[in-house]
Amino acid sequence: MNKHLLEERNGLVTRPEEKSYSGIEFYLLRMFVNPFRLSWILIRLGHEPLSPVRFHSPLALLGLTTPIYVYPNILYYTYHIIRTHGLWTVLSTGVFASACIDFASEIFHRVFQRRSKVWQSWINLSPDDLSVNDVRTGQCDETPNNDSEDSDGHRPSAFQVESQMEEARPLVFVRMLIEASSLKVWEIFLTQPFLVVMVRQIASVIGGEVQYYWFPMAVLSVCKENGFGGFFQGLVPRLLGELIATVAYFSACRFIRRGIVGLKRKRTASLSAAEVLIYFGLRNYVYPFELTGCIQSVRGAKLVAAAESNRFSDWRSLERHLTSSGQANRGWFPFLRSHVQPNHLPQVN
Predict the structure, then answer these.
(1) pLDDT tens string for the chain (349 positions)?
(2) What is the DSSP string of 164-192?
(3) Spatial distance between the Cα atoms of 142 and 306, rounded to a whole number of angstroms
(4) Do residues 49 and 205 touch, judged by C-beta distance below 8 A?
(5) Is the pTM of this model over 0.85?
(6) N or C terminus of the chain with fewer C-beta within 10 Å?
(7) Are the beta carbons of 211 and 303 closer than 8 angstroms?
């Protein structure tokens, strides 16, 4: 291998492209992206300060369909929020909590990559070398195999995990799927307190409440208003949605590769594109759970934005209400946001 492709770090030889790029500059970049995250959370909470407008689709112009009403797009919404509440408020609100979420997610992403290398070593073993007990305990081979990388030193493809799930034997696939789901469960569980604090800080922008202004104040306010359990408000629907998406995605990828395309055929761009479509389709399917979890995270808080969540005793009744009222896709589309609330329709000219 070309020695220029390698460098030594902490006594280990690594490729330059494997170095960490999670420095302070990326967290500063997240701060400048924070206005869009803040707007997205406010939309999820049902805060729509702008009146909907009439949208004429090409079919409506031809008289084939009727015009629909939509809220202004996310860009104009963000601009309005900045004009109303000030640039610094929009830039700084919830930014520390969101950075903690991103940092924790990055850690789990690296753990997932590490486990992917171990999974490759399982796949490379013959059935005789891989016992049932080894797969159950995960002790079959904890040393990453060099076969998981190309011989020319390039990094594995972007769809490496999908390929591993598709090529693995049934018992190994089940073990890998359980591990992937477990990592997702731990990620959701450990980031939920920061998500609750972030959402409540952003929600305080609506009513101007000051008890959630700073991160330490927000943590104390959650404890005072809901106790320790308040940090896990909305955990169940969020966790349920992520588990459904994870299990269904990898299972669907395996079915398509083995049952339709054929395992002997090499991965093609069309297969990768199909898996991307499956991923976004599943994200759209489980989005009501994610939305419900976001709204439930402010339940019991002394916030104006908590009025909707406080009307429901549990997350199931809230999810049914969102679905029946056409609000289940609130915040999913950045443009043509057609989830117009009934109380806003009389404002349309």
Answers:
(1) 444 434 444 433 333 333 444 556 666 676 788 899 999 999 999 999 998 888 776 655 555 566 788 899 999 999 999 999 999 999 889 989 998 998 899 899 999 889 988 888 888 775 555 544 454 554 554 444 444 444 344 445 678 888 888 888 889 999 999 999 999 999 999 999 999 999 999 999 999 888 998 999 999 999 999 999 999 999 999 999 999 999 999 999 999 988 888 878 888 888 889 999 999 999 999 999 999 999 999 999 999 999 999 999 899 999 999 999 889 999 998 888 888 887 776 554 4
(2) HHHHS-HHHHHHHHHHHHHHHHHHHHHHH
(3) 47
(4) no
(5) no
(6) C
(7) no
Tokens 């990768």: give the residue: 272
State the amino acid at position 217 in one-letter form.
M
Question: What are the Cα distances from residue 332, in Å, to 159, 275, 281, 296?
Answer: 25, 20, 12, 17
Sign (positive or negative) of CA dihedral 34, 37, 41, 42: positive
CA neighbours closer than 13 Å in the CB half-sphere of residue 314: 3
Residue type, 137: T
Cα–Cα distance for residue pair 325/322, rounded to 1 Å: 5
Which tokens belong to 209? 């409440």
